[in-house]
Amino acid sequence: MNIKEETRKMKLASPLMAAASIETRNQALALIRESLSAHGQEIFDANHKDLALAEENGVAPAVKKRLKFDEGKLADVTAELTQLMGLEDPISKVTLARELDEGLTLYRVTCPIGVIGVIFEARPDALVQISSLCLKSGNCAILKGGKETTYTNRVLFRLIHEAAIEAGLPENCLLQAEQHNEIDELLECHESVDLLIPRGSNKFVQYIMSHTSIPVLGHADGVCHIYVDKDFEEETALRVIVDAKTQYTAACNAVETILVHRKIAKEFLPKLAEALHQAGVTLRGTAEVNEIIPVDVIPDDESFHKEYLDLKLGIKLVDDLDEAIAHINRFGSHHTDCIITTNDEAAQRFMALVDSAGVYQNASTRFADGFRYGFGAEVGISTSKIHARGPVGLEGLISYKYKLFGHGQTVGEYASGKKSFHFKTLEI
Asked: What is the phi-psi region of residue 398: left when phi exceeds 0, alpha when psi lies from -120 to 50, beta otherwise?
């Protein structure tokens, strides 16, 4: 496949995609939901092939967990599609209305970004989420999933693409890339691709960012923290930490480091260790932590910027809230961080000073998810501060344009002083 030629076709199709009615786009999602449900066994059979190859090739456990697409995953993606259909249209929203002068009116109106290339990990449900969000937001999408899910992704893409066309969307609204070399070809398509969203390892994301002139949106890793304050409720802390670590260890929003106030450490750490050991978690920590509970001691020269993506957890003691904040801002990835505290003043300070896309009080970091935020799903997580931050749902996939309506006015009239602006805000 010639990626450059195919993306040119998508670029030409993107205005038609942007102009598709919300009814057509929602119909596409409805047909996708129906098709996935009707072809469940075909999807599962393809997934079994991918899982067997993963086992044969010695794929890491964290990766294999992501590969699985079963009845539970199918139920999840169909629920996400239903939620997404119920969300309002993100396109053609007027966000500014201003009369510049009598008979000269300016509007700022939301519109799709255009052509979006998404390179994502070996997770079949991600293909459904990404494609459906792009379709709902009126964007064309190039999809490149991990090679470990080749068979599953192939079936899912075919069903989704067929449903989109049946609903009346342009044939070139979606494109699937399967070969690894097509990634480098995609990086050169700056004339036809408007945005790239890479998902994966830090090394991979950095590679994408440094090898293309196309704007890139995403995050490199997920080093999430939970700080247990001196004013805390023990049951809450234990429940939240265990969930944040074990509910889905391979996720970028799983907690990787626990910071504990020294004042409570001797009483709290043994109870935390017991709860985590029962959940199968291996504990790592500083020599100071090891004096209270047995842990694998973290060498002094090892960075706390560590994403395990496994049943492993780092622990460190801190003197106070400000030390916890400083640690998170230095060693975190600006993804999602949480404070366990009953002190609302401490929580507010934590949320104000921690420089992350998500800051929580007394809640699992695993809530950092587009579906759980009510976005219908997410195309990825962004730790950037420009355009979109946190779980990127529909709003992160739109831009805007300015529409100016006049009656023959010219700039020369205003430059000469013949006419003047009066700038009046209009009701939206």
From this structure: beta
* pLDDT attached to residue 72: 95
**Closest to 113 in 3D by CA, of 217, 24, 248, 37:** 217
Q: What are the beta bridge partners of residue 101? A: 104
Quote the CA–CA distance of 364 and 226 in Å, as a whole number. 9
Instruction: Kindly give, in sequence order, each residue whose CB lies less than 8 Å from that of residue 90, ignoring residues fewer than 6 positions away.
Output: 110, 136, 137, 138, 394, 395, 397, 398
Q: What is the mean pLDDT of the chain?
A: 94
Domains of the chain: 3-216+394-402 (3.40.605.10), 224-367 (3.40.309.10)
| pLDDT category of residue 221 using cuts at 50, 70 and 90 | confident
pLDDT digits (tens, 9 = 90+) for 235-251: 999 999 999 999 989 88
The C-alpha atoms of residue 333 and residue 411 are separated, in whole angstroms, by: 48
Q: Are 338 and 226 in contact (CB under 8 A)?
A: yes
Exposed, middle or buried, 412 (CB in 10 Å: 0-12/13-18/19+)?
exposed
Average pLDDT over residues 261-283: 98
Residue 391: the pLDDT is: 84
Give percent of the chain with pLDDT exceeding 70: 100
pLDDT of residue 112: 97
**One-letter amino acid of 362:** N
pLDDT tens track for 125-137: 999 999 999 999 9
Per residue in 389-416, pLDDT (tens digit) is: 888 888 899 999 999 999 999 999 999 9
**249-285: buried (b, 16+ CB within 10 Å) or exposed (e) per residue?**
bbbbbbbbbbbbbeebbeebbeebbebbeeeebebbb
What is residue 177's three-state secondary structure?
Answer: coil
Instruction: Determine how many CB atoms are found less than 10 A away from the CB of residue 230.
Output: 17
Pair of tokens at residue 346? 């401490």
CA dist 366 and 245 (Å) reads 8
Say what the pTM is.
0.81
CA-based nearest residue to 303, from 223, 200, 391? 223
Q: Where are the alpha helices (DSSP H) in 145-303?
A: 150-167, 181-187, 202-210, 234-246, 262-278, 287-290
The H helix count followed by the E strand count for the chain is 15, 17
Beta strands 380-382 and 390-392 are: antiparallel
CA distance 260 to 255: 14
- Residue 286 above 90 pLDDT? yes
